[in-house]
């Protein structure tokens, strides 16, 4: 006999067979919910693998109800699908819950409606807490580094790339940090670097990696302590700019890279749209985009 405790804190006696059956049911339920969440977002399994850092083989086993996935990896999958891990594990069917319905309506609504909802649901942030810190978010190729450096120079404030800050503190390139410490170790260093920047800078322009928005606590810190601007662009522009920088990795040996990029953009759109402001850099010269960014920052009194 054993004991099992449900989410209400109620404990019941169970036999070994019942425990095994309960575990199997949980694994099957989680797998089905991961598959359903992925399909609802239109994300191919290979793209979810890239976003979460969980191997395609592991994801296939998980969705088939055959994977005994660790809590750490399951958390990565949940975050990459923009869901709380509790939604994958709970007894209640999340797809019939009001929470999921509201979340879907939120994603489909206009930016103005989203802002109204956030204003109603989230406590207001003290504007003074953000000081004159500006954070540029968006996928690689949106123009964060180029525009951030020029904006900082034009405004007379420091420009900081978060990955360079991580490299200086760790004493090694980001790719070595990832190889040595893994994604979780990198995220810890990322959060620590942001805390240091907040403590040492009242005014600056910061550029962060595109995936930071998938880290709930870190992103929450950014939104509370920086004036965030989403630099957005079309998938074609993202890919063209990255290749123009001499980086052929997005297309090398991967003919489906563009479809994957579009899927990532779609899956992160709701997260990026939480930024205070956004600027579309598609089809614009650097000078034009810079002028628009400076106007935005001054008009909104971000800096």
Can you offer a commentary on this structure?
The protein is α/β, with parallel strands linked by helices. It has 15 helices and seven strands. Strands 4-5-3-6-7 form a five-stranded parallel β-sheet, with helices on both faces. It has a two-stranded antiparallel sheet with strand order 1-2. It is globular and about 70 Å long.
Strand-and-helix sequence, N→C? EEHHHHHHHHEHEHHEHEHHEH
Estimate percent helicity.
55-70%
Secondary-structure class: alpha/beta
**So what's the oligomer here?**
single chain
Q: What percent of residues are in strands?
A: 5-15%
Instruction: Using the coordinates above, name the CATH class of the largest domain.
Output: Alpha Beta
Annotation field: number of helices: 15
Cα gyration radius (Å): 21 Å
Segments where pLDDT lies below 50 for 5+ residues? 1-12
Number of strands: 7
Number of discrete domains: 2
> In one word, what is the shape?
globular
Terminal CA distance: 64 Å
CATH architecture of the largest domain: 3-Layer(aba) Sandwich
CATH superfamily of the largest domain: P-loop containing nucleotide triphosphate hydrolases
Specify the biggest β-sheet: 5 strands, parallel
CATH topology of the largest domain: Rossmann fold
How confident is the prediction overall: mean pLDDT?
Answer: 81
For the largest beta sheet, what order do the strands appear in spatially?
4-5-3-6-7
